[in-house]
């Protein structure tokens, strides 16, 4: 079973589904904290808490959804029913930015928090089941990397385009228009992803999920290799979401160019698009563990340049963003390709439980990243408008030095993962088209 080579007619729509996921993750990740503090006049710590609380609830939510997804596959043979339900996340995405006129401060933060709670629930239905697919299929080590390479390439393109388009569509007061347009793209992409999952299931069916395995979640939590990988990924997720949340602040308050957010996003994401296929090749030569550690080290190096702020000069800052983007591509591809390896090594057909824990860590990182940055802003005395020197230093160092420290911690955690030393599979053969 593990010598199967997946057909493009399944891979392409599967990868397209990640465009919708990328919009849900990136647009709120980049703009929601800024939208709260600078448009809705929410104090930084309250804004950070409004984003933190809904995502912390995912620590319980996602593993439970993972068990539901496993049960659905055991009973129905697929996870697609939950994925269809998850497409309703589009409604929550629109609600995040369609705040009623006149609602500001704490009430506005409450509106956003409620919409985010609903959105996270719906998104988990789709995300957990989608990411369980590589572990469900009868494919091997390198084919998992190939599949996730396609997926990561497409999601990075989606993040790039949505990250650049969102501020242009929103302008100063067009956030609802932006959410409606991007929400429509989300829906189309997520439905394509469901089609892709169905085709991949037919091309490379894996071992069926057995019903009644109540210990699946505990098995995932007790898996030492999985805990090490998840701990590193959680720290990376915190770091990446902090950097994304900080970009609009760095553009406006450090560079003095609010519209430059789109340039920073493009300088970050465009190299990531180009680098993803190269990381697939690097992983085949070096293995996933060594490749991931290299990407993490490159990210730490790239973070040091923005610490100098505008004094570093735009060419050097853009170059640093490109380095971060190349590293980001590797840090997205390798861990997501390693999770199916861990599931395969466990000998249990319970991918939903593993991915439920994994996406809970991802969601927690999505919450803690902006919250850590909001705490940096609060420590510097940040208020919307003119900033003190201490506040400007918080904007700059929170964007540069804090991520460098966090990524160093991720490297130390990742070095404890040893499963990648397992032998790799034989040369694959093509599946039926």
TrEMBL record:
**Alphabetical UniProt keywords:** Membrane, Transmembrane, Transmembrane helix
The terms under GO molecular function for this entry are:
symporter activity
List the GO cellular component terms: plasma membrane
What residue intervals traverse the membrane?
Answer: 12-35, 41-61, 82-103, 109-132, 153-171, 177-198, 231-251, 263-282, 303-329, 394-413
Coiled coil location:
none
Gene Ontology biological process terms, A to Z:
carbohydrate transport
- What is the official name of this protein in its record? MFS transporter
- PANTHER family in alphabetical order: MAJOR FACILITATOR SUPERFAMILY (MFS) PROFILE DOMAIN-CONTAINING PROTEIN, MAJOR FACILITATOR SUPERFAMILY DOMAIN-CONTAINING PROTEIN
